[in-house]
Amino acid sequence: MLFLLISALLSGSEAALLSLRTVGLTSGEATDPAVRRLQELLARPRHLIVTLQLLNTLANVGAALMAVVLAARLAWQVHWPPVLVLLVELLGVALVLLVMGEITPRLLAGRYAEPFARRMAAVVWVLQRALYPVADALVRLSAHVQRRLRAPERPLSPDELKALEVAQDGMLGEDERELLAAILEFGETTVREIMVSRLDIVAIPETATFGEVLACIRTSGHSRLPLYAEHLDNILGIVYAKDLLPYLGRAELDQPLNWRDIARPAMFVPLSKRLDDLLRDFQRRKTHMAIVVDEYGGTAGLVTLEDVLEEIVGDIRDEHDETEPVLYEQLDEHTYRVDARMNLDDLAELLGIELDTESFDFETLGGLIFHLLGVIPEPGDEVQYGPLHLRVETVDNHRIGQVLVRVEPTPVAVRKNGAES
């Protein structure tokens, strides 16, 4: 029982301390002796783990040796086959150590990490100080072996990342879990899901004057602008704002420049291109922007390196992003006024409902309404999809603007301007 108790306390201490290393202490001051000891222990995580693992192994070995002694005595007293008694005894000890000495203490300590760690801080601190020479030697030895056996570095595959997420469950903080989830989804996301729509592209025609281009750069805040001839389906290249610096004070504002010579070559990618491949292409070609084309070669949108990185780390704000566009407004408990550009996954998360977005070939609320109605909507058109009642409020140049979204328990028929269809 003593060895079992020691094993349980050491396993719980390891789980609690490693959990604190991830999330940190939530209370206590630096003058608190327990806090100081915990900070000192967590400052050397490798030595801490080696110390606890060493003591835990010794406790488990002690329990196994006691089991062997008891099994030998029992076999001698009752005249049972020693091998059979020893086998049963070892299986029983292994099961008890696994459940009572490893799994249960780790689960309990992980749930109550800080109070458990505070109570064990003094004991573990003394043990680590006492065993520091041994632990330090083992840490150095393991580092040496690791360097000798280290395989050539390579990127982790999606399956390896998923296995890492499962293995580290409960050990990662919320931010780490979100980042790992974003990385797992990154390779499965296509350009179509993150691109800037064709209608939102800020571009310049080759007939634009120098002054018009400067004004466009100032108003948009973009440092790279696509250059086109006649229409957006004929992209000639990308004009960089820094390439215009030599012309300041020398070129006439009301005269066009030879934009084809100034523009840099544009990079074109298909709608179906995955983000991990796109990121590698950006790195290889040393560019930050790509024009997205559809299956017919027409311009479908635009994607930048910032858009790609935001899929992993979240929104990246700069001096031109002072105000974040508001895509929805809650009117009451079940009703929202939503911008039709809102992503369907974000809408489902906002409303707390399930939408089978994987089966769609569109990404936004506006795309869903076009799909359901089958025609260009007009203000006042209504449609039901599952629990969602959608009413188009504004339409500008065949583009849906604001939509009134209400979560309803039962579906109704599709209606157009109040009349059932």
UniProtKB/TrEMBL annotation:
<comment type="similarity">
    <text>Belongs to the UPF0053 family.</text>
</comment>
<dbReference type="InterPro" id="IPR036318">
    <property type="entry name" value="FAD-bd_PCMH-like_sf"/>
</dbReference>
<dbReference type="InterPro" id="IPR005170">
    <property type="entry name" value="Transptr-assoc_dom"/>
</dbReference>
<feature type="domain" description="CNNM transmembrane">
    <location>
        <begin position="1"/>
        <end position="176"/>
    </location>
</feature>
<keyword id="KW-1133">Transmembrane helix</keyword>
<feature type="transmembrane region" description="Helical">
    <location>
        <begin position="48"/>
        <end position="71"/>
    </location>
</feature>
<dbReference type="InterPro" id="IPR044751">
    <property type="entry name" value="Ion_transp-like_CBS"/>
</dbReference>
<keyword id="KW-0677">Repeat</keyword>
<keyword id="KW-0812">Transmembrane</keyword>
<keyword id="KW-0472">Membrane</keyword>
<dbReference type="InterPro" id="IPR016169">
    <property type="entry name" value="FAD-bd_PCMH_sub2"/>
</dbReference>
<dbReference type="Pfam" id="PF01595">
    <property type="entry name" value="CNNM"/>
</dbReference>
<dbReference type="Pfam" id="PF00571">
    <property type="entry name" value="CBS"/>
</dbReference>
<dbReference type="InterPro" id="IPR002550">
    <property type="entry name" value="CNNM"/>
</dbReference>
<feature type="transmembrane region" description="Helical">
    <location>
        <begin position="83"/>
        <end position="100"/>
    </location>
</feature>
<feature type="domain" description="CBS">
    <location>
        <begin position="195"/>
        <end position="255"/>
    </location>
</feature>
<keyword id="KW-1003">Cell membrane</keyword>
<dbReference type="InterPro" id="IPR046342">
    <property type="entry name" value="CBS_dom_sf"/>
</dbReference>
<dbReference type="GO" id="GO:0005886">
    <property type="term" value="C:plasma membrane"/>
</dbReference>
<dbReference type="GO" id="GO:0050660">
    <property type="term" value="F:flavin adenine dinucleotide binding"/>
</dbReference>
<keyword id="KW-0129">CBS domain</keyword>
<dbReference type="InterPro" id="IPR000644">
    <property type="entry name" value="CBS_dom"/>
</dbReference>
<dbReference type="Pfam" id="PF03471">
    <property type="entry name" value="CorC_HlyC"/>
</dbReference>
<protein>
    <submittedName>
        <fullName>CBS domain containing protein</fullName>
    </submittedName>
</protein>
<feature type="domain" description="CBS">
    <location>
        <begin position="262"/>
        <end position="322"/>
    </location>
</feature>
